[in-house]
Amino acid sequence: MSTQKHAFQAEVAQVLHLVTHSLYSNPEIFLRELVSNAADACDKLRFEALNNPALYEDAPDLRVRISFDADAKTLTIEDNGIGMSQEEAIANLGTIAKSGTREFTSRLTGDQKADAQLIGQFGVGFYSAFIVADKVIVETRRAGLPASEGVRWISQGTGDFEVEPIEHAERGTRITLHLQGDAAEQFLNGWKLKSIINKYSDHISLPVQMEKEEWKDGEKEGEPGRMVKTGEWETINQASALWTRPKKDITDEQYIAFYQHLSHDFAPPLAWSHNKVEGSTEYTQLLYIPSKAPHDLWNRDKKAGIKLYVKRVFIMDEAEALLPSYLRFVFGVLDSADLPLNVSRELLQESRDVRAIRDGNTRRVLGMLEAMAQAASAKPTDADVTDVTDKSDASKTEGAQANAIPEEEKYARFYAEFGAVLKEGLGEDFANRDRIAKLLRYASTASDTVSVSLADYKARMKEGQKAIYYITADNLAAAKSSPQLELFRKKGIEVLFMTDRVDEWAMGFLHEFDGTPLQSIAKGAVDLGDLQDEEERKAAEEAAAQFKPVLEKLKQVLKDEAEDVRVTTRLVDSPACLVVKDGQLSNQMARLLRQAGQ
Ligand code: ADP
Ligand code: MG
């Protein structure tokens, strides 16, 4: 059989161009990406072998090996994972399966460090090999196929690649990089490679090995000594899954590196929580709260970034059953001791253990948020904000010191990035609605920053005030200039500004807070109760009587536009305003629905 030439998909060619032209100043990330692919391939083999142990052939010990040849200027990364068939090699290394390439390219910032993170986030890590290599050779055989069905894939990283069938006795993938000038000097060095692997791949749960080298003195007088390979492989990473190690043995740097591996986020997380939970169902959870929203947070099908393991065997990414969707910004790992190894997504939805895990994860995340929120408020107001439901764990704010953002600013940061997502929880998670309500923050007539909690508001309520007042609007400026605020301003009654698109919908699920009703000032006749003095009430009644003929006329003229026209005391300077009948969609909601084409 002969060699076939294939053109790269247009997007790949574009990514290759970008990668080689914009990431050359941070070249070492190629190793992170290739080792991470090798580890993924081993995870996939382990998973498929659950149902078909023959796939292990006679090599059950999975590992990644890195070697180099300084004379030939080659660096080789080899794994005995799942490997690829010919079709898979063509599809996986010649096209980009995941959508969003255009987004990837549009998000490149020119900041090479940040851009290097994007590579992993958008599933184009393999192509980073071409940052350092002018030729890449992939030799691979898929587990379960005969040795004769090996494949060799070769490309110089320009317009096309070649594929040919080869004999390949060992299962898995060997990637040989022909390093170009600078890169050859930089990376063909055992010490350098080890330090990169330690930096990026320490938490990888299988052994990453390099051939041991020994110093050998020159044989004759004057001949220089040199390092020589011994033929023996040594494991250079920790090679144990990070979450299985005791907390006290894990440094903040290791937790952060693991987060960055999971999330492809360049910034450190705001907080994390690592717990072994025992009880009716046993599991280990390691959950992180990012400091930055991912690019796809608003995708309707964005899944929670939780990887599911069962007894340390990787089962699936994005296990959406493990967290409610309003917490989809969380990254982490869940390792269950009880679920069956062959658990499917469908089964997960029905499992009682999974429900318990999901509840436990939800409580844990809310607990982390509460701890951050508490650190943000100078004087803690609520005593009941710490999570005491999981007795197995005593810590609440681990990882708190690990971020450059000061403790008291973290919650504001979190809220700016994810507050709008959290609000979805009001409609989605009735059991935790009160806890979520306590985490909400708004700007108001008393605060320009989004920092007023419902409890703060209550504490400042006027004598005789019976409701928490709010107004929804497209943005802060629109909220502030609303004529409906006039009377409240005059009387010094605080009004919360709700300016997220989700607010209107979310408030449909939150009718009261701690016994006090929440009321939109854009709805119905706002009853200020005891706050309205007798004189005002009288004046309004008199005005209503006096203006009766005018009102009748207005009603007549506006009969197709307005349901009612009445005299109000809510305005101070403006002559008129629109309000919505109680129990009806507000202006803001109606506008949103119109925008959505409803
Ligand atoms: P991602 O890892 O996000 O899927 P990459 O560009 O890193 O994106 O890799 C593309 C695909 O190539 C992988 O999804 C996988 O199918 C395949 N692949 C890459 N490296 C290996 C490997 N060592 N063994 C098997 N398949 C691999
Ligand atoms: Mg990858």
TrEMBL record:
Region (Disordered): 377-402
Keywords: ATP-binding, Chaperone, Cytoplasm, Nucleotide-binding, Stress response
InterPro entries hit by this protein: HATPase_C_sf, HATPase_dom, HSP90_C, Hsp90_fam, Hsp90_N, Ribosomal_Su5_D2-typ_SF
Cellular component GO terms held in the UniProt record: cytoplasm
Pfam families: HATPase_c_3 (PF13589), HSP90 (PF00183)
Top-level taxon in the UniProt lineage: Bacteria
Gene Ontology MF terms in the entry: ATP binding; ATP hydrolysis activity; ATP-dependent protein folding chaperone; unfolded protein binding
Keyword Cytoplasm: yes
Chief location bin: cytoplasm
Ligand binding (ATP): 33, 37, 79, 84, 92, 98-100, 121-126, 173, 345
UniProt keyword Oxidoreductase, yes or no: no
Localisation per UniProt entry: Cytoplasm
Domain Histidine kinase/HSP90-like ATPase, chain residue ranges per copy: 26-183
Region span, A: 1-345
Record text on subunit structure and interactions: Homodimer.
Record-stated family: Belongs to the heat shock protein 90 family.
Function: Molecular chaperone. Has ATPase activity.
NCBIfam families associated with the record: PRK05218.1
HAMAP family documented for this protein: HSP90
Protein name: Chaperone protein HtpG
The species this protein was found in: Lampropedia cohaerens
